[in-house]
Amino acid sequence: MIIDLEDAVLPEEKQAARAATLGFLAVTPDRYRTGLRVNSPRTASGCADIAALAEAAPDPAFIMVPKVEHVVDIEIVAEALSALSPRLIPVIETGRGLEAADAILRHASVRSALFGGADFSAELGTGLDWEALVYARGRLASLSSSAGRDIIDVPYLDVKNEDGLRAETERVRAIGFDGKACIHPSQVAVVNAVFTPTGAQVSAAEKVLRAFEEAKGGAVLLEGKLIDRPVVLAAERTVAKARKG
User: What residues does each domain of the chain span?
Assistant: First the structure.
């Protein structure tokens, strides 16, 4: 669950929302994995969010940082909240952010990143069409994999269109994304179903790993198909995702 202090809150309500959020985080049961989306550290509201967090010292599961355009944005938040050892999720949603994504993703406090497709498409002057955003998605998938971080896709905004949600989620999974944010609880089951390996997929992956182990690391044929290192890595990822789920 993500509490949003940024786009979901009107400017004149920022202070009240911040106070209410800190009060909620102080009493939230541990069974809830609650994160907090602050305002950009490049804004006065963002600086106020960070100062309030440093003083109140809550322990959100993660802190989402929007409009990240340079690794310095992450360094500011990480250093200001160093006493909390924050787990940061930068939102990459501008062209400048995409260009700086490699350094952003490699910062030690970053665990994963979110592609902010809505703002990115607005900057491009396009809609949320697949073709308009496929380059940004592909680049972020590649950079996040290289940095060893998860990359999460923008929420699907048409809450009542389950078929559209499933289709888009399958497409981002196919190009290397690790998850998709949800804007409504009704979307969670669909997204989880797409990203959770099926029993058949896990069984096939385990068979690959057994065959590779028996071959002592050499290439081997399994059911007529060559099993080499890239295939083994894919199988390891499938098994890891199943265990994580």
Answer: 2-154, 199-244
CA–CA dist 24, 29 (Å, integer)? 10
Query: Of the candidates 225, 157, 215, 213, which has an alpha carbon nearest to the alpha carbon of residue 186?
Result: 157
Give Cα 189 to chain centroid, integer Å. 17
pLDDT tens profile 1-41 = 999 999 999 999 999 999 999 999 988 877 778 999 999 99
Residue 38: HSE in the Cβ half-sphere, 13 Å Cα cutoff:
32
Alpha helices in the chain (DSSP H): 14-27, 44-56, 71-80, 95-99, 101-105, 117-124, 130-147, 162-174, 188-195, 199-214, 229-244
- Among 140, 152, 141, residue whose Cα is nearest residue 37: 152
Q: pTM here?
A: 0.87
CATH (one of 1.10.760.10, 3.40.228.10, 3.20.20.60, 3.60.21.10) for 2-154 = 3.20.20.60
Residues 6+ apart with CB under 8 A from 222: 207, 208, 211
33: phi then psi, degrees, rounded to nearest 5: -95, 90
CA of residue 147 relative to chain centroid, distance: 13
